[in-house]
Amino acid sequence: MAARIIDGRALATKMRNALVNRVQHIKESKGIVPGLAVVLVGDDPASRTYVGMKEKASQQVGIYSEIYRLEAQTPEEKLLSIIDELNEDQEIHGILVQLPLPGHIDQRKAIERINPNKDVDGFHPINMGRLVIGDEAGFIPCTPYGILKLLENEGIVIEGKKAVVVGRSNIVGKPMAFLLLHRNATVTICHSRTQALSEVTREADILISAVGKPHIIKGDMVKPGAVVIDVGINRLKNKLIGDVDFNEVREVAGWITPVPGGVGPMTITMLLHNTIEAALK
Ligand code: NDP
User: Fold this and answer.
1) What is the SS3 assignment for 16?
2) Which of 116, 140, 153, 275 is a Cys-bridge partner for 126, taking CB atoms 3.0 to 4.6 Å apart?
3) Closest residue (by CA) to atom 32 of ligand 1?
């Protein structure tokens, strides 16, 4: 039997509708309009698209948004001073610096400059550190957070399961692994130096791929009945495809996320959620 398709778009729509009501309620009861500032440096086409989507999604749920589109040559000091201003701005509760930044800017410096209480991406070392020690009261990075919501919504049990996360980036792989670990999965993290990847992935009850290589996960790398979450976004001839060979894997897995329409819509939804939480803090 083919895998059940996890519809990220449907859950994202449902959650965003609930967020519309939440924003309205916060406005009426507290007189606060949640505010998000997004800072984009340069003109990377994918980043431009993401920033546009974040702006539109914010408006749809009633979040006030400011978008800073800075030219690629913007000096690091200029970016840091904009972040300083946003840290002080009472109308802005969430600050997001779109990654990647141009090479002359120290990404770490920019992220560390954001007030951790406004770090709605959850990339500041304070929020990352909280996540690692199991304190989820900070901000959880949006993509892994969205994946967790997808798993919960499907009623998938995490406790006691073998989870394999392919990819160890700070924005997806590592936070994902800790979220699963804290929910009592036995977690393995794979990366480019992992040997015999398919032997490891075949052990997984829950397999999450965050690599960025088209169709790196094939049908014979998946345990029958496993949950397969595809984070990858790869652009091939104007088409978006995932890390997972969907047609092969759906014949083996129990659950699978499509690309597009799986993890992507949830990432932005969790950004909206985090912004609202920031406004309430
Ligand atoms: P990074 O490039 O930062 O990390 C990729 C990871 O994959 C690295 O840890 C790398 O290992 C590992 N890797 C590379 N090649 C292999 C291989 N052959 N076998 C096993 N592991 C390998 O990417 P991100 O985490 O930022 O993003 C991953 C993908 O997810 C991208 O396609 C990105 O576009 C997408 N993405 C999607 C989002 C969404 O909302 N749907 C949000 C964020 C990202 P090593 O550490 O050894 O280099």
Assistant:
1) helix
2) 116
3) 212
Is the CB of residue 107 below 6 angstroms from any atom belonging to ligand 1?
Answer: no
Specify whether the CB–CB gap between 155 and 161 falls below 8 A: no
Cα–Cα distance for residue pair 235/87, rounded to 1 Å: 35
- Pair of tokens at residue 56: 């539109």
Ligand 1 pocket member 174 (CB < 6 A): no
Confidence of residue 1 (pLDDT cuts 50, 70, 90): confident
CB contact at 8 A, 63 and 275: yes
Mean pLDDT score, 120-146: 97
More confident residue, 70 or 1: 70
Ligand 1 near 242 CB (within 6 A): no
Q: Are 213 and 243 in contact (CB under 8 A)?
A: yes
Place of tokens 């201003």: 85
Going from the Cα of 266 to the center of ligand 1, the distance in angstroms, rounded, reads: 17
Let me know how long the chain is: 281
Interior/surface letters 218-230, b for 16+ CB within 10 angstroms, e for the rest: eeebbbeebbbbb
- Return the percentage of the chain with pLDDT > 90, whole number: 98
Ligand 1: distance of its center to the CA of 210 in Å? 4
Q: Which of 169, 170, 269 to mutate to test the pocket of ligand 1 (most atoms within 8 A of CB)?
A: 169
**Peptide bond preceding 141 in cis form (omega within 30 of 0):** no
What pLDDT is stored for residue 156 in this prediction? 98
Cα 97 to chain centroid, rounded: 14
